[in-house]
Amino acid sequence: MDPVRNPFAPGAGQRPPELAGRDREVDAFEIVLERVARGRPERSLVLTGLRGVGKTVLLGELRSMAMHAGWGAGKIEARPEADLRRPLSAALHRAIRDLAVRHRAPERIDEVLGVLKAFALRSSPEGTKLRDRWQPGIDVPVRNGRADSGDIEIDLVELFTEVAELAQDVGSGIALLIDEMQDLRAEDVSALCAACHELSQSRVPLVVVGAGLPHLPAVLSASKSYSERLFKYSRIDRLDRADADFALLAPAEREDAMFDGEALDDLYRRSGGYPYFVQAYGKAAWDAAPTSPIGVRDVEMAAPEAEAELAVGFFGSRFERATPAEREYLRAMAELTDGEDLPVETAGVAKHLERRASSLSPARDSLMKKGLVYSAQRGQIAFTVPHFGRYLLANT
């Protein structure tokens, strides 16, 4: 098989050649765009799931849909303990520029950009000298008095209102997409919920689409009790057998190649239907096969290469971030589940390690902050990375 024509593309946030199994989410967002365009009330969206299920890819697809509909769209990736103002300002600046290209309203756009600039400049701490302040790159005069109080909740409500009203004035909309949403600071989560609540009542055309790990709904609910009704939640899971097969067969057929039935059986068993793994094993199997159709022997030959790549780029990079105490905790979780993707009792981890539960709390909390585990429900913990337990048992 010609490696140059290999269609499979394992990569962080990289769109696969076939976006299989996500029709429900794509269709739902299409309805959101149409309803908002008609002035109908609609909730913002939150996508949740484990790592490797394609949340970032799906965010990119939804952003493309918004832009195709003539909306302005900006995307950010939240980072732990990082200030929201700077990335949010850059994302909304991009979205407003999208509107400026498609809709002629220069004076109105400059007014809103002036408010955005005032919001962005508040990211510099009080007392920072003018020459040392971060400059957002917005080439219009600052418009003081809106979204610049220094209180992120007040400012975000006012900023979203200004931006949404601009979109309404030019007959369009704004989509703000936030990846790794669970990593927002508590005060920023609260501000975001308050701003979305305000928008939902005024029916203006601004939609927030967040994506994050499975415990993101709990993060939002802890911030604002009404968040359960504020967002439309969608759990992004692994692909079922039919969609996993389609993700392999459709790109291969476009390159005049095929997988036989036994190869597809083995690929699904190894990948578990997780989109990132489907791409990794599919790419390795293509490169290993001498001719089409790709058979089970080719998959068996390719599996060690795919697993070695996953061990370094997907599992190993995350494991390296853990301290010795955290690695001990992770290993105990893997042993208790026999490498399966299942939650475990925190009390069970303590018993397994013959330690007091309180002594393990720092390691557990640190692992949660690093995004390696999440609280499946009270008293339980689970890996955020599929097949991580299997990797730990084989490599640690």
Automatic annotation (TrEMBL):
UniProt KW Heme keyword: yes
Keyword annotations from UniProtKB, A to Z: Heme, Iron, Metal-binding
One Pfam family matching this protein: AAA_16
Cytochrome c domain boundaries: 168-334
GO MF entries: electron transfer activity; heme binding; metal ion binding
Highest taxon of source: Bacteria
Segments of this protein annotated with the region Disordered: 1-21
Name recorded for this polypeptide: Cytochrome c domain-containing protein
Organism placement in taxonomy: Bacteria, Bacillati, Actinomycetota, Actinomycetes, Pseudonocardiales
